[in-house]
């Protein structure tokens, strides 16, 4: 990172930390006192930043569009699936109403076997909404954009 970029990042971090502290009732003086006398705060900040980076690397995000009037048949046809299962039908999987607009589907990577319960708990911990089968069908239709890894 160039010296100029490093200075901008440093300034940006300072401004964001100050905003967060002031929003919670603190002051610039509080920040100065803590950072001059409590070096462990830097360690905790570094741990939080690195945990967030690991979390970001361990997931794939897809953005897709929910449209009015979607049906099971229209989503399956848009997916152009190369196989069909007679058990998977519109009667068994009706498309429930969802507000039109963009939605996000996040695939989490665990690096080990986990139960459904553990995956759901991790998604909840990350503030994610549990996906639906309609979301999976929409992603299968190719109407999504890969966002990040």
* Cross-sheet strand order for the largest sheet: 2-1-3
**Which band does the percent of strand residues land in?**
5-15%
Our count of domains comes out at 2
> What is the terminal separation in angstroms?
21 Å
Helix content, binned percent: 40-55%
Oligomer: single chain
How many β-strands, per DSSP? 3
Shape: elongated
Rg calculated over all Cα atoms: 22 Å
**Structural class estimated from helices and strands:** alpha+beta
Labels describing this entry:
elongated; 6 helices; 3 strands; 149 residues; alpha+beta; three-stranded antiparallel sheet
Description:
- This protein is α+β, with helices and mostly antiparallel strands and 149 residues long.
- It folds into two domains: 3-56; 57-148, no CATH class.
- It contains six helices and three strands.
- The protein has helices at residues 3-23, 28-37, 40-57, 72-79, 116-125, 133-140; strands spanning 59-66, 101-108, 144-148.
- Helix 4 runs parallel beside helix 6 (133-140).
